[in-house]
Write a structure and sequence with these properties.
Number of strands: 7
Order of helices and strands: EEHEEEEEH
Radius of gyration: 13 Å
Structural class: alpha+beta
CATH class: Mainly Beta
Shape: globular
Largest sheet: 7 strands, antiparallel
CATH topology: SH3 type barrels
Length: about 110
Amino acid sequence: MTPRRDIRRYEIHLVNLDPTKGSEIRKTRPCVVLSPDEMNRHLNTVIIAPLTSTRRNYPSRIDLTFQGKKGQIVLDQVRTVDQSRLVKRLGSLTERRARRVASTMTEMFVF
């Protein structure tokens, strides 16, 4: 498979996450692309974080209203998927929300 060149960081795509194991978020659902554009242009995989309507008070969850639905970006379920799992582009995060995602990811992985 040739990588798609049009996948951009902080876009929201409908992604088929099945099959899964254990407590992994499953089914086809919206996900935020976290991988940098350069990686998305050259690799067959993308790094994503799923969205969920189940709200939890975790520091790794970011509140979001998308397409009129309240939910959260689940940064504690980040995973890498093949680009073929991306079904369609649904939209993208606002700059403010993208900055919040970047800040939270930095807090999670930098010490």
